[in-house]
Each structure stands twice: as C-alpha cells, then as structure tokens.
Amino acid sequence: MPGKNKKKDSKKYSYELSGVNIDKASNVLSQLKKTITSTFSGKVLSDLSSFSGLFQLDLKGYRNPVLVSSTDSVGTKILLAKKENCYQYIGQDAAAMCINDIICCGAKPLLFLDYIACGKINEEKIKTIIKSIAESCSYCNTVLIGGETAEMPDMYRKDDIDVAGFAVGIIEKSAIINSSLVNEGELFGLNGYLSVGIPLSST
Fold it and tell me: Distance of CA 114 to CAs 31, 90, 203, Å?
C-alpha cells in the first residue's frame, strides 16, 4: 500500500541515519541563547531561529560610509587545541582572525558569524567554542548575529573539528587606513601564536 511504502521511505532517508544529530545542535543553541543574545543590540532585527541575521545600519555621523568584510579560520591552531584538549580559546581566535582584519584598516566591527564543522557533535566542546566566540564579540562590541554548526561524518573523522568565521565592519571612506600608511620598522604587538603560528614555529 502507498502508505506503507511512504513510511519505509521516511525511515530510509533521515538525518539520524546519515549520521547527523540535529537535536544535539538545537540543544547546544538553546543552552547558549542567553550568552549569544547578550551580544545583541537594538540594531538586530532577527532572532536565533532565523535563516539569516538582520542588522539595521545606523549611518549617523557618516558622510561616505564603507562596509568592510573579512573571513578566516583558526587554521592549524585547532591541532594544538585538539592535542591539549583545550577549546576555550579557539572561539576567541576565530573571532579575532576576522575582527582584527576589520580593525587594522581603521573600521569599527559590527557583526560576526561563526562556522563550526565536525565529524560528530560534542555538545560540551561546541558550547565551549561558541561561548568563547560570544565573549570575544562582547569585548569588541560586535554582534554575534548568526552561525552554523555542520555535522558531517562523511567529511570529518569523529573527533575532528574546524572553526571559521565572517565579520563585517564600517568606516568613513576618508578614514581608511591602508598599507601605504604602514612603514618598515613599525612595531605590532602579539599576545601568542597566530593561526599560522604552528607551522611557522616548527620551520
């Protein structure tokens, strides 16, 4: 009967059978709702259940506003986190890699989105990373407006994880800082390994 075939098909094709646990991902999000929304401002017009993040631009004080964007990942630094089983700073690194690129041209960061990919969702590990991202965004007055946690057992090993992000900022056109204003011998401060620091330090 058609009904029976349909029932069999629904069992054959499911997130669970493909190795994806959407309940775990939803549980992580619900537990972190307060932490994430603490970064929100009155300019956020969406919520965590939205498919996209909506941000209302306030252009007061700008004559020629320019949007600045950056995307990056934590790179090989994830290997150090995995080796030491310490993920509390990886979220910070993901946010910093993008937000620093916004700030270095003189722009004000506005919003950030994260992307976490893994072979199997480890709720505590994911929560630690996202909490670290949210805390870093709060420190930089940046909205954590959205993100994605992708569980892909066919792409990653069970304990593999990768973290990336995307940031948007704003600056007055006449205030943009570019490489022509940076001179040889000027000092820049670092507070640890950059995300390319692992392979560079071993060469």
Answer: 17, 12, 30
Which residues, listed in sequence order, are joined to residue 162 by a DSSP beta bridge? 117
**Model confidence over 126-176: pLDDT tens digits?**
999 999 999 999 999 999 999 999 999 989 988 899 999 999 999 999 999
Q: What is the pTM of this model?
A: 0.84
Query: With contact defined as beta carbons under 8 Å apart, do 114 and 164 qualify?
Result: yes
Token pair for residue 109? Answer: 């960061």
How far apart (Å, rounded) are the C-alpha atoms in residues 145 and 39? 8
* Full set of structural domains in the chain with CATH: 35-177 (3.30.1330.10)
C-alpha to C-alpha distance for 29 and 35, rounded to whole angstroms: 10
The strand pair at 143-151 and 161-172 is best described as unpaired
| Structure tokens given for 146 | 């959205």
| Separation CA 169–CA 102 (nearest Å) | 6
**Helix residue ranges, H only, 111-196:** 123-139
Q: How many CB atoms lie within 10 A of CB 161?
A: 23
User: 143-151 and 108-118: which strand pairing?
Assistant: parallel
- Asked whether the beta carbons of 144 and 134 are under 8 A apart, the reply is yes
Place of tokens 């709720």: 123
Lookup result for tokens 């992307």: 115
